[in-house]
Amino acid sequence: MAELDGTPVDELTLEQAAGELERLAATIADHDQHYHQDDAPKIDDAQYDALKRRNLEIEVRFPELIRSDSPSKRVGYAPSEKFSKYTHSVPMLSLDNAFSEGDVQDFVGRVRRFLGLDGDVAIPITAEPKIDGLSASLRYENGVLVNGATRGDGQVGENVTGNLRTVETIPQRLKGSGWPDIIEIRGEVYMAHEDFKALNARMLDSGRQFANPRNAAAGSLRQLDARITAERPLRFFAYAWGEISAPVATSQLEMIENFKAWGFDINPLMRRGETVAELIAVYNDIEAQRASLGYDIDGVVYKVDDLALQARLGFASRFPRWAIAHKFPAEQATTILEDIEIQVGRTGALTPVAKLRPVTVGGVVVSNATLHNGDYIAGIGANGEPIREGRDLRKGDQVTVQRAGDVIPQIVDVDISARAANSKPFEFPEICPACGSHAVREVNAKSGKIDVIRRCTGGLICPAQAVEKLKHFVSRNALDIDGFGDKQVEAFYHDGLVTRPADIFTLQARDKRSLKRLKDREGWGGTSVRNLFEAIDERRNVVLNRFIFGLGIRHIGEGTAKLLARQYEDFEGLRSAVKAAADETSDAWMDLVNIDGIGETVAHALVEFFTEPHNDEALDTLLEQVSPTPMEKTASDSPVAGKTVVFTGALEKFSRDEAKAMAERLGAKVAGSVSKKTDLLVAGPGAGSKLKKAQDLEIEITDEDGWLAIVG
Question: How far is Cα 327 from Cα 479, in angstroms, rounded to an integer?
């Protein structure tokens, strides 16, 4: 369970923010896998949106802490290995979210500022229901369906052409006329409520039931046998497009009407407005009809109608600037807090979880809720201020639960008037329930502030931490040892066979000398043991970024591990450089913190890990068994790909946002300040200190015309 801080974002310290961004990145990635790959989400959309929103709010306040593996930079999830891959010719990006009328006003304001339009210039914007299904892209050539794919990670999806051909509302050939030679029609595969109920009724005897229509649609479309998909009542709404060989419309609404003429279902509730008030009126009207539509929606999508303006607005890192999803609000319910359990995480954090009397919240049964930390239970904020007006939480309390705000639902209030007279305040344990070691709240050496998280001091002797560290080491995005899953880690650890990563690679040799062979254990045999040992041997040579990630260093996610692997190329180079960076006046320290995406928090975590003597010993033992190999080099035809560019001064030919977007599209990294790592400074009129520093560092300098000449 994620160890998330309940502190308001504007009260987080730099260290708290870095720690929570790390935890949010891991938590959201886990839920992305459950949602996109497994079609079995553990949380609902409101909860997921709250996680993403909190991550973004922290990044806005602490831009220097934005991680390379940030959820704000990611779309969807890697496609499943069950299907062949399909590379989208035009990426399938996600949408930015709005949760209030103010957010919608901000969206329209950003559009105006980016385009340089005054407030009296009308900007027509369409509004349509946001369908809760599975995104798909259909490629038509000369009017014939030739390929169909899921969104995947936005760049590469799963080829499910045969399955999509079975959906009755997807035409095999485009109707009418006027369609271009090549066009990718995009939309949502979904299942109507009545069809969902009928499907679950038919599946009752099989013992399998889908949790909701979205899961049913996703699971049905991603069948390896298209005949099974054909038996499922799937439908498709068309609402967007990817590659197109020739323009056939000048507005979003006109394009959608073309889809209808070509044989697709389009949503009849789509409208167009010119003011925020008109858009909110459409939102309220659609929300009022939500229960009677017969299919699931979770918000309203707004899109700038003029396609020429869409082209000018372009895209941010993972979503278009010309569209936003206005999500419906979360829901609440009242129940009883039956108990508070303490769970010990991989980092030794003691996390309290509320065990609730099961209650249905918005159609989902909830039995757990996050409690964040001991102060949160006591009704105290991070800076000593009261939360819930200072009301604490106790066993037996009547509480209000909301399906949003954390990895599991959160308790937002408590009814003191319903509290039993003999109830007692909860005493947060000072002893680790897993190993009996002291559990302490660390003091930040810089700020002197006490950490809100209490952590076990047992380190490697704590079974909760040791097991979780091993699970992380062999996990799919780390060493990815086939057949060495959570159950095997737990069993081998508790039997003393594997207590640290290096033990995995000596397991076969020790097994040969053992009186009780692995093949004689319950659930094992000669073939399964041989397969396990072969899988372990295959990972004796592992790509460097996976090895770094697998070490479980605090604040080091997948993206950060890739940054380090590309920067230092081999493990010993990284190791020696980080040790040298222990001196914060050294060039090694400056080189480390100047890596785009690596801040001081990450750098300190690396130094602490690599300068700890017992880690040195463990690494030496592990490296006798494993040889990390360099990552593949990236390649691009762009003349600025991989270079760090800084824009300064008053740009005249394009806005700062447009300049940054252009550079990022070409593979460049855009930095906000000049350093030794800067490759190019683009200076407009009025350039000041950045220009002076670039001159002092002898960095290449050009103006806007020079920039356009460089990038062609």
Answer: 38
In three-state secondary structure terms, 587 is helix
How far is residue 641 CA from its own chain's centroid? Answer: 25
The 8 Å CB, 24+ separation contacts for 414-419 are: 414/337, 414/388, 415/334, 416/391, 419/394
pLDDT at 454 over 80: yes
Residue 98, C-beta contacts closer than 8 angstroms, at least 6 positions apart: 104, 106, 107, 302, 324, 325, 326, 327
Q: CB 571: neighbour CB atoms within 10 A?
A: 21
What is the set of active-site residues? 130
Strand partners for 303: 126, 323
- The average pLDDT across 367-394 equals 88
Residue-wise pLDDT tens digits, 72-88: 766 555 555 678 889 99
Can you name the CATH fold of 85-327?
D-amino Acid Aminotransferase; Chain A, domain 1 (3.30.470)
CATH topology match: 9-74+330-418 vs 543-629: no
Can you give the pLDDT at residue 555?
78
The pLDDT tens digits for 275-284 are 999 999 999 9
Nearest residue to 154 via CA among 27, 38, 237, 242? 242
Per-residue pLDDT of 613-655, as tens digits, reads 777 888 899 999 999 999 866 546 788 888 889 998 888 887 7
What CATH number has the domain spanning 644-711? 3.40.50.10190
In the chain, what are the domain boundaries?
A: 9-74+330-418, 85-327, 459-539, 543-629, 644-711
Q: Which helix (H) or strand (E) holds 368?
A: strand 364-370
Topology given in CATH for the domain delimited by 9-74+330-418: OB fold (Dihydrolipoamide Acetyltransferase, E2P) (2.40.50)
1 pLDDT exceeds 50?
no
Determine the topology of domain 459-539 in CATH: DNA polymerase; domain 1 (1.10.150)
Contact 239, 267 (CB under 8 A): yes
59, with CB counted inside 10 A (0-12, 13-18, 19+), is: buried
What's the topology of domain 543-629? DNA polymerase; domain 1 (1.10.150)
Q: Sheet holding 297-304: strands in order across? A: 96-98, 323-327, 297-304, 125-131, 271-273
Q: Mean pLDDT across the stretch 60-74? A: 77
Question: pLDDT value at position 459?
Answer: 55
